[in-house]
Amino acid sequence: MLDNHRDASVQAERRLERSVAAALRVIAAAHDERQAPPVSAARRRLSEVYGATRLARRLEQERRSA
């Protein structure tokens, strides 16, 4: 009886280790993808456009309220 419990415990621990390892691989792949030059450049460009859009809206609101 004790051996069955121990075997189940060992199997559960191995499944957990494999699951954590898989999650870490996914995280690493996502990180690498985000750091890839084309993706990084696209994210920078979107940030610039977003910032310019916010600035234009703020200036328009200031003109309306003045």
Question: Can you tell me about this structure?
Answer:
The chain has 2 helices and no strands. The protein is elongated, with a radius of gyration of 25 Å. 95% of the residues lie in helices and 0% in strands. The model has no long low-confidence stretch (mean pLDDT 91). The chain is an all-alpha fold. The termini are far apart.
Total helical segments: 2
Q: Helix/strand-derived class?
A: mainly alpha
Largest sheet: none
Radius of gyration: 25 Å
List segments where confidence is low: pLDDT < 50 over at least 5 consecutive residues: none
| Helix and strand element order | HH
Percentage beta strand: under 5%
Outline, from the CA principal axes? elongated
| Mean pLDDT across residues | 91
Question: What are the SSEs and their pairings?
Answer:
Elements: H1 2-35, H2 37-65
List its traits.
66 residues; mainly alpha
Short description, anyone?
By secondary structure, the chain is an all-alpha fold. The chain has helices at 2-35, 37-65.
